[in-house]
Amino acid sequence: MEAATPETVGSDRPEPVLLTEPADGVPPVVDTPAALNAAATALAAGTGPVAVDTERASGYRYSQRAYLVQLRREGAGTVLVDPIALGGDLGPLVPALADAEWVLHAASQDLPCLAELDLRPARLFDTELAGRLAGFDRVSLGALVERMLGYRLEKGHSAADWSRRPLPKDWLVYAALDVELLIALRDAMQDELRRQGKLDWAHEEFEAVRTAEPAPPRAEPWRRTSGIHRVRNPRQLAAVRALWQARDTFARDRDLAPGRVLPDSSIVQAAQANPKTEAELVALPVFGGRQQRRRASMWLQALRAARRLANEELPAPSLPNDGPPPPNRWADRDPEAAARLSQARAALSDIAERNNLPVENLLLPDLVRRTCWTPPEDRSPAGVAQLLRDKGAREWQIALTADALSAALHATPQP
Q1: For the chain, how many structural domains are there in total?
Q2: 320 falls within a domain
Q3: CATH for 149
Q4: What is the rounded distance in angstroms from the CA atom of residue 110 to the CA atom of residue 389?
Q5: Which of 15, 205, 282, 319 suits 303 as a labelling partner, its CA being 20 to 30 A distant?
């Protein structure tokens, strides 16, 4: 598949060609050990990078496991693997893919569920991240394929329930198309990054994504309940927590998305209304439904447990924050820090613009805020460079920003 040349990537480019079917058709789903062994053999005999994608059932299932794994390699074609039918054992694929560069789009979304299957890349190319580094304003797979290759992908099943079996034919078409052009897109993006002098930057970014440690569990995840900002009473917060935890246990045990068990809005309404009987509970929106009536005793038990808590057991209004305050308060709290942040933001925005980069890809905003609020003892360029390195910044980022950030850390408030 040929990539569009830089000259064709513009307002006068031809109308993109709608791609509705894979060139070689949709292969049968690999769902037996024998078929998996055959697929692994074919992939191992293939050449070049391997396009990789997964389909999950977010919004339907509690887990973020992969319900379909799509692979494509020159000489092997497209392979669609059903890890559920195979009991999660995709062992034959591990040696088959061991030495290949993997090409994914938004790799950080897929790598965790692939790791659950013991599939981990030795090398990585992330086409979405490549698009960001290239300075493109739209970096979805469809947008990049259209811009760089001149094709338009038929989209429509990304939010489907991929735990459904059997998988419908049109879903499999969609899944196969997601890897159909991924290698060609990788080649086109590599050429673009090389043209812009950013290919080495991209390799550093890809390696950082590949080797990133899993995020630690979020402290008190119930505080992310949508609409919780309307709950200010500690006793009501305890009710939100109790209902959230009851829902989470129920959802995890049945592998259901929590929002399908009980919407966040209903948790907040029940915490505010504080119903004490089943009649009061089912009078609330949603709780009167047939399924919720069956679960009424579970929700009432959670609410009763929250009411019985001693005052010292109630949750704090908010989590302790180890970071700096919101920037709009800096001028009053610490004018010197506000001056540092203002100069740093201006300098980084200028660097990002000159290099055709999103400023958040140049340096993480949270790292900039923390550095300006609590500067290192050594504010020299070398000292700032070491701080950035210790905090996980890549060498290309440090080379672009250390001098400017060092200068900003010496800024003083204007009289």
Answers
A1: 3
A2: no
A3: 3.30.420.10
A4: 26
A5: 319
22-31, 142-151, 156-165, 311-320: the lowest-pLDDT one: 156-165
Are both 115 and 201 inside the same structural domain? yes
Q: CA-to-CA distance for 395 and 232, rounded, in angstroms?
A: 44
Query: Are residues 228 and 304 located together in one domain of the fold?
Result: yes
In a domain, 297, yes or no: yes
Q: Starting at the edge strand that comes first in sequence, how are the strands of the sheet with 101-104 ordered?
A: 77-81, 68-74, 47-55, 101-104, 123-126
Handedness of CA 112, 113, 114, 116 (dihedral sign): positive
- Which range among 14-23, 28-37, 179-188 shows the weakest confidence by mean pLDDT? 14-23
User: Has residue 324 got a pLDDT over 70?
Assistant: yes
Question: Which tens digit of pLDDT belongs to each residue from 364-401?
Answer: 999 999 999 999 999 999 999 999 999 999 999 999 99
Q: Are residues 162 and 283 in the same domain?
A: no
Tell me if residue 30 falls in helix, strand or coil: strand
Q: Are residues 118 and 28 in the same domain?
A: yes
Count CA atoms closer than 13 A to 306's CA, side-chain side: 28
- How do strand 68-74 and strand 17-19 relate by DSSP bridges? unpaired
Residue 215 placed within a domain: no
Same domain assignment for residues 257 and 373 = no
Q: Are residues 75 and 172 in the same domain?
A: yes
pLDDT band at 12 (very low <50, low <70, confident <90, very high): low
Instruction: Say whether both 98 and 131 belong to one domain.
Output: yes
Q: What is the CATH number of the domain that holds 335?
A: 1.10.150.80
Catalogue the E-assigned strands of 211-362: none
Range of the domain at 169: 6-210
- pLDDT of residue 125 exceeding 90, the answer is yes
* Burial of 90 from C-beta contacts in 10 A (0-12 / 13-18 / 19+): buried
Q: For residue 219, with 0-12 CB atoms within 10 Å meaning exposed, 13-18 middle and 19 or more buried, which class applies?
A: exposed
Question: Which residue, 173, 12, 182, 5, is CA-closest to 107?
Answer: 182
Residue 4 has pLDDT above 70, yes or no: no
Q: What's the pTM?
A: 0.91
Question: Which range among 18-27, 134-143, 155-164, 261-270 shows the weakest confidence by mean pLDDT?
Answer: 155-164
Query: Among 179, 210, 241, which residue terminates a domain?
Result: 210
Q: Are residues 204 and 262 in the same domain?
A: no
Cα–Cα dist 292/133, whole Å: 48
The string of DSSP letters for 243-277 reads HHHHHHHHHHHHT--HHHHS-HHHHHHHHHH---S
